[in-house]
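Page header: ASSEMBLY MODEL / two components / 306 residues total.
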Amino acid sequence: MYRFHKLDKMTSTRCAVCKYFRRRCPPDCIFAPYFLNDNPQRFICVHRFYGASNIGKMLEEMPVQLRADAVDSLYYEAKCRIQDPVYGCVGIITSLHRQIQIAQSQLAKAQAEISFLDANFVGFEPTPSLSESLVQQNGFEQGLDDPFSTWFY
Amino acid sequence: MYRFHKLDKMTSTRCAVCKYFRRRCPPDCIFAPYFLNDNPQRFICVHRFYGASNIGKMLEEMPVQLRADAVDSLYYEAKCRIQDPVYGCVGIITSLHRQIQIAQSQLAKAQAEISFLDANFVGFEPTPSLSESLVQQNGFEQGLDDPFSTWFY
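Prediction written out in full:
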């Protein structure tokens, strides 16, 4: 009876890693702050790819204040690898690179379009009626030379 | 003398993984196609984080034709983790997300600028002299209603 009681107390204070390995969790356990008892899945996930020993080594090699971020990033990578066993989060990087290329290409097109519109918008002397209609339309008084200089950026 | 000769022959045909573990490389070695003898660093790099056993398990669980890509992506992740032990390639993902946000914000600004220019460019009846000057300036005959419809995209 006493034995069960002791075991019960031990399990409630063990971190997820020590619980997984069915061992006592020492007060200075390197895993305890990052693998809490109530989320065993987090450790199972990173352990599947990196192994507890490698994770422990990585944590030991970095300052304490960076370890939580390191475990978060390892967990993210492990989740990506579960979702996409072939490419993992490198698949996400590839997809993001593609998105950046698309956005940059759209931006280049838009900038070329602006240059064209700008050139034709300001490339001739406005007639008085044209200036007036712009002021009427937009509610601000600007010439045709630099219509965006003050409000747009 | 014979013994050295045999060992020499064995080492030359072993893959980088079997060479690392100083073992015979079987003809059906799961690592051999992806960890060639002449690039031991590639295996050392992934082994440091994942461990040979985990890499072997991952490879076994996927079709042969995807294994080369999987090893490449693991190698990429491992190199990222060496460069940035805390964030690994998750740091790259964060940076790419930021770049996409910047590009999208620039694109939104550019599109708003285009909308403004377009609205003021086509929002009134052009005088004959304005139309003529545009055709003269740009060398193509287009009305003011949709100046980009045919050549720009």
